Automatic annotation (TrEMBL):
<dbReference type="GO" id="GO:0030313">
    <property type="term" value="C:cell envelope"/>
</dbReference>
<dbReference type="InterPro" id="IPR000866">
    <property type="entry name" value="AhpC/TSA"/>
</dbReference>
<keyword id="KW-0676">Redox-active center</keyword>
<keyword id="KW-0732">Signal</keyword>
<dbReference type="GO" id="GO:0016491">
    <property type="term" value="F:oxidoreductase activity"/>
</dbReference>
<feature type="signal peptide">
    <location>
        <begin position="1"/>
        <end position="20"/>
    </location>
</feature>
<dbReference type="GO" id="GO:0016209">
    <property type="term" value="F:antioxidant activity"/>
</dbReference>
<dbReference type="GO" id="GO:0017004">
    <property type="term" value="P:cytochrome complex assembly"/>
</dbReference>
<feature type="domain" description="Thioredoxin">
    <location>
        <begin position="237"/>
        <end position="377"/>
    </location>
</feature>
<dbReference type="InterPro" id="IPR025380">
    <property type="entry name" value="DUF4369"/>
</dbReference>
<dbReference type="InterPro" id="IPR017937">
    <property type="entry name" value="Thioredoxin_CS"/>
</dbReference>
<keyword id="KW-1015">Disulfide bond</keyword>
<dbReference type="InterPro" id="IPR036249">
    <property type="entry name" value="Thioredoxin-like_sf"/>
</dbReference>
<dbReference type="InterPro" id="IPR013766">
    <property type="entry name" value="Thioredoxin_domain"/>
</dbReference>
<protein>
    <submittedName>
        <fullName>AhpC/TSA family protein</fullName>
    </submittedName>
</protein>
<dbReference type="InterPro" id="IPR050553">
    <property type="entry name" value="Thioredoxin_ResA/DsbE_sf"/>
</dbReference>
<dbReference type="Pfam" id="PF14289">
    <property type="entry name" value="DUF4369"/>
</dbReference>
Length: 377
């Protein structure tokens, strides 16, 4: 895969970026229909949590405030005096963008069905929702089917089929997101899409080119600068980069350095005993290991388990019959490897070639088998 350099336009804009931005005043006006008495709306931010609330009187409410920069938030409606809760679940809510101006919501009966108008970013977001609604519905149906399947019936074949269906939908929605970004380069919504396309495990080779499509003003915004800094870190562990070395102990206390495995292909597998998806993927990794272990290939398991979970870690190794070298650190997720590889979610893996270069990342299911078959002919 080719590397993509971040635009030098950021440097040209640098003198302006340090200037403080005046807070923008926003107003949210809602008019709802069939709403129970004693209802309230709660506004919260994914990172900051609770922001504000207001009572709904005769179906109407108003929220006012200021924001230092545009922000995506969730507005939640709770009926009959129920208390606010951050976890939305099946709650009645709607996603909004806080920015300068008045945001209008109208609905016959719920926030989830509200029509949102009034400011540029909210108009952009409604366009995106209309574009992706059919695929989002398919995602929801696939997830519902997965949840409805008992764990004992989630066989490797079932998981592979689910992964393939999920990946097919992800490919379609990724194309839709990329198209939206291309036609809305000056929208903060597009920046949020670039971030979302990097979840739960960001791939620098995919998100950096999309970030490059954004207008200089969006790249140079506070949120854009923060994400550019993340990309700079991700680049150090992207395909084509030299794999950062680290040293961690095995269960027996032997120190193992990644560099000591140089000369063969190594799959660095980040996992933990409490990670369900990691455990479900283990049979596939075992299959790959048994197929190629005699052909210049090995696996190095790096656990995020903490010292207090040592017994559970060892039990998971035994229960899943993992034959390759395992290492961990008493500090769990704070270990050296986790920091150097920018691990924010698991399962996650990196395939390193005999020269210590990262040649692939996050190989799952059949893709792991196919990649190894091509490299180890």
């Amino acid at each position: 895969m080719k590397k993509t350099l971040l635009p030098l336009l950021l440097l040209a804009a640098a003198p302006l970026l340090g200037q403080a931005q005046a807070p923008a005043q926003f107003t949210i006006k809602g008019q709802l229909g069939k709403i129970a008495a004693r209802s309230k709306v709660f506004l919260y931010d994914r990172e900051k949590g609770y922001l504000d609330s207001a009572e709904v009187k005769n179906g109407a409410f108003v929220l006012k405030g200021t924001v230092a920069e545009p922000a995506q938030v969730t507005l939640q409606l709770l009926n009959n005096g129920n208390r606010y809760r951050l976890r939305t679940g099946q709650a009645d809510n709607v996603v909004l963008y806080l920015e300068k101006g008045t945001i209008n919501l109208q609905s016959p009966d719920s926030l989830g069905r509200a029509t949102v108008t009034g400011t540029p970013l909210n108009n952009d977001y409604r366009q995106l929702q209309a574009l992706t609604k059919p695929i989002q519905s398919q995602f929801e149906a696939l997830y519902a089917a997965y949840r409805a399947t008992p764990k004992e019936q989630r066989t490797p074949e079932f998981m592979q089929q689910s992964d393939e269906q999920n990946e097919a939908l992800r490919q379609i929605i990724s194309q839709q997101y990329a198209a939206f970004i291309g036609t809305h380069p000056s929208s903060v919504v597009s920046l949020d899409l670039v971030k979302e396309m990097g979840l739960p495990v960001p791939d620098y080779t995919k998100v950096a080119p999309l970030f490059a499509l954004l207008a200089p003003a969006v790249q140079g915004s506070p949120a854009g600068q923060r994400y550019a800094a993340e990309l700079a870190i991700l680049k150090t562990v992207s395909v084509g980069a030299v794999a950062p070395d680290f040293t961690l102990p095995t269960p027996e206390g032997k120190a193992v350095a990644l560099s000591s495995l140089r000369g063969q292909y190594v799959l660095i597998d980040f996992w933990a005993n409490w990670c369900g998806p990691c455990r479900e993927e283990n049979p596939n990794v075992i299959k790959a290991y048994n197929t190629y272990k005699g052909r210049n290939f090995t696996v190095l398991g790096v656990s995020l388990d903490e010292a207090k979970a040592r017994a559970n870690w060892l039990k998971a190794i035994a229960d899943d019959q993992l034959p390759w070298t395992q290492v961990a650190n008493p500090r769990g997720g704070e270990n050296e490897a986790v920091k150097r590889y920018h691990i924010q979610a698991i399962p996650q893996n990196f395939l390193i070639d005999p020269q210590g270069i990262i040649v692939a990342t996050n190989l799952r299911g059949a893709e792991l088998q196919t990649t190894l078959a091509q490299l180890l002919k």
